[in-house]
Amino acid sequence: MAGATDVDDTVETFVVYDLFRAFWTRVVGLFFREIAERNAHLIPRTGPVMFVVAPHHNQFVDPVILLMHAMRRVYFLTAAASMRRKFIGFYGRCLRGIPVERQQDLARRCSGKIFLEDRFAEPTVISGHDTRFTQEVQVGMKLMLPNSVGQARVEAIESDTRLRISSEMRELAALELLTQAGGTAYKVAPHVNQDDMYRAVYDRLNKGECIGIFPEGGSHDRTEMLPLKAGATIMALGATAANPELGLKIVPTGLNYFHPSKFRSRAVIDFGQPIDVPAELVEKYRQGGDAKRQACDDFLSIVADGLKQVTLNTPDLETLKLIQAGRRLYQPTQHSLTMAQQ
């Protein structure tokens, strides 16, 4: 790991980064008619910064739009599966991406269907039909539902058709799948050791650099943000716990596209008020166990609230279309609206 860090810090590496950044920002700039930014002046000019970006529409375009307006070198956490691909991996390494192994990339589908037999009395007991839990599932694995609507850690395997998860799945979409007639298909993913990734992130932050992360965990085309993963808060709290003088700032960053798949369309990137890492949550994080988990959950709520201030979230496509229609109809007589205001 030390050797990789030494190579990353050479002047030649930064030159390559700047060249590739200039190239890709020019390419993406040609695709869009206009990309407006709001509140870029809020970005700290020095010191470690973590850009938490949502919603994540496109794994190639979204990072470049941030690079166009951040005015600092930003290094993104990139799926290790993408970094292993020939061309994407080449560009990712040139942009000093930090590979992160995602459980969903290692997930495999298992036999049968699963369901909740009694969601009220035993919400953590998963039953199966034609399942082979004892052969295909292991304690510690992640049980995952289709379309990322719910997941939970496997706590115990009682038989081929019965297992327990560490916590109940509360999301409405997950409950609908688990209580529908016939049950739902599912996947399991092994536990992933992320120690190398966290060390790389802490090293960059301790050098006063900027990290970019998409906390939803994957790209999508929904009209609202997906539930945020806890990785960003673990990184922020862990880095600050290890170095109390770090001074890390979290910058919520919203990406809003008018017509994301249309050539020469428009987009807006909105930077929120930087968030400090609360000292009381860092102290709870140091305690470990339940206190650590609670600290991560509390800070995740703070970050989520920050993202809601810079993103447009609607429950469905019809509501989004209604808002867009209202925007088009609103024509003030005294002044014209900037694209960011639209």
Structure commentary:
The chain is an alpha/beta fold. Helix content is 39%, strand content 20%. Strands 1, 2, 3, 4, 12, 13, 14 and 15 form an 8-stranded mixed sheet that branches. Strands 5-11-8-9-10-7-6 form a 7-stranded antiparallel sheet. Strand 13 (249-257) and strand 14 form a beta hairpin. Helix 2 packs across helix 3, helix 10 (231-242) packs across helix 12 (289-308) and helix 11 runs antiparallel to helix 12. The longest helix is centred in the first third of the chain and has 21 residues, at 11-31.
Key structural traits:
single chain, 342 residues, alpha/beta, 8-stranded mixed β-sheet, 7-stranded antiparallel β-sheet, 13 helices
Class per helix and strand makeup = alpha/beta
Q: In one word, what is the shape? A: globular
Compute the separation of the termini in Å.
46 Å
Question: SSE order in H/E notation?
Answer: HHEEHEHHEHEEEHEEEHEHEHEEEHHH
What is shown here, in short?
This protein has 342 residues and is of the alpha/beta class.
Topology:
Blueprint: H1 2-8, H2 11-31, E1 34-38, E2 49-54, H3 61-70, E3 74-79, H4 80-83, H5 86-94, E4 98-100, H6 103-106, E5 108-109, E6 113-115, E7 125-129, H7 133-136, E8 142-144, E9 151-159, E10 162-165, H8 172-179, E11 187-189, H9 195-206, E12 210-213, H10 231-242, E13 249-257, E14 266-271, E15 275-276, H11 279-287, H12 289-308, H13 317-329
Parallel strand pairs: 1-14, 2-12, 2-13, 3-4, 3-12
Antiparallel strand pairs: 5-11, 6-7, 7-10, 8-9, 8-11, 9-10, 13-14, 13-15
Helix pairs in contact: 2-3, 10-11, 10-12, 11-12
